[in-house]
Each structure stands twice: as C-alpha cells, then as structure tokens.
Specification:
It is built from 6 helices and 7 strands. The protein is an alpha+beta fold and about 200 residues long. Strands 2-3-1-6-7 form a 5-stranded mixed beta sheet, sandwiched between helices. A two-stranded antiparallel sheet has the order 4-5. Strand 2 and strand 3 form a beta hairpin. About 40% of the residues are buried.
Length: about 200
C-alpha cells in the first residue's frame, strides 16, 4: 500500500540521515531490531506516488534516556537485553499496521499509519508511561529507565519526508532539553508534561 510505503520510507530516511551518529555495528554484536533489514528502498517510487493522495501518518521518534549508563555500569550484554525488552514493549502497545524500526543504538522510530498528530501524541504518551512505570527485568536486576519522544505528522502533498523527519528529530531534542521522560510535538508542548 502507498500509505505503508510512506512509513517504510520515513523510517529508512531517518536511519540514513542519522546513521553517522550510530554506535556499535551489527558485526560487533548489536541486536538486530525490528525492521532493520526490509525492502524499504525498493518502495520509494510507490511512496512518492502516495504523497499525491493526501494520506496522513505520524513519526514517533523514541530515545532511551541515559542508556549509556546501563552499558557502562552493567555491560553491553545487559544493555542488549534492555533494548530487546524495550522493542518488545513498544511493539505490544502499537496498533496493527504501525511500523516499528530500530535506528541504531537506543533510538527507535514508530511510523503510525492514518494517525493525526493528537492521536499520535497520545500513543507516544502511552509508550513513555510503559517505560517509566515498569522497570526492566535483567540479569543485573531491575533497571528503571525513562525515554524521551518527539512526534511529527506527515499531512499531505505539501509535506516532504525530510521535513517530517527533521521535525520529529527537533521535538525529540526539545524533549531531552526539557528534562527527559516527556513527549514533545507541535501541539501539547505545554500540556504534555514530565511524569514524576
């Protein structure tokens, strides 16, 4: 479907743009996340045609806060255990048809199909609460973590993939600057607050 292809291209474009910032490679033992090896690139032409249909999807960019501390304190094996559990926790909360991809390191992207911005912010808040309210069970014991999330929406032909990805990335940065453990977007910036 053209709409699904939009989501795949968005995930691939964000992975491409942010690739220079990645940490360990798959050859060094990085766990392979969902959507890491897809046929994304082959769908670019289909996605370009879909831009003319006025379809809507949102990009939810998620980053585990202070994840480096986990690796430094407990080792990469425990870090990888957390990442796998984190990905599974996200997947369980998503709707059928939503696309989850690991970008590398502790960053993940969700492409929420047929989801306007307000709905996607609510989804992002559920994801955030799932992380902050439920410690991860690991070989090193329970680890309490939080995540920061940026949300942006592709709302038709006037938008481009690059624009929506840059916007999501900008709001993720704002979430980090706002103290982490929060969701930021072009709406609800004042009302979606940090959980205590």
């Amino acid at each position: 479907r053209a709409l699904h292809a939009h989501g795949q291209v968005a995930a691939e474009e964000l992975r491409r743009v942010r690739a220079p910032d990645r940490g360990r490679s798959a050859a060094e033992g990085e766990p392979r996340g969902p959507g890491r090896d897809g046929d994304i690139c082959r769908r670019r032409q289909e996605a370009a045609r879909g831009r003319r249909t006025g379809t809507v999807f949102s990009v939810i960019l998620i980053d585990l806060d202070h994840f480096k501390v986990v690796n430094d304190s407990h080792g990469h094996l425990v870090g990888d255990e957390v990442l796998r559990a984190f990905a599974e926790r996200l997947r369980v909360l998503l709707r059928p048809g939503d696309l989850l991809c690991r970008l590398g390191g502790e960053e993940f992207v969700v492409v929420a199909e047929q989801a306007a911005l307000h709905e996607s912010v609510r989804v992002a808040e559920r994801l955030r609460l799932s992380v902050s309210s439920n410690p991860f069970q690991t070989e090193a014991g329970q680890l309490s973590l939080t995540c920061s999330i940026g949300v942006a929406t592709f709302d038709g032909p006037e938008s481009t993939v690059d624009q929506i990805l840059s916007e999501a990335d900008r709001y993720l940065y704002l979430a980090k600057k706002s103290g982490r453990n929060c969701v930021r977007s072009s709406v609800d910036t004042e009302t979606v607050t940090k959980s205590h």
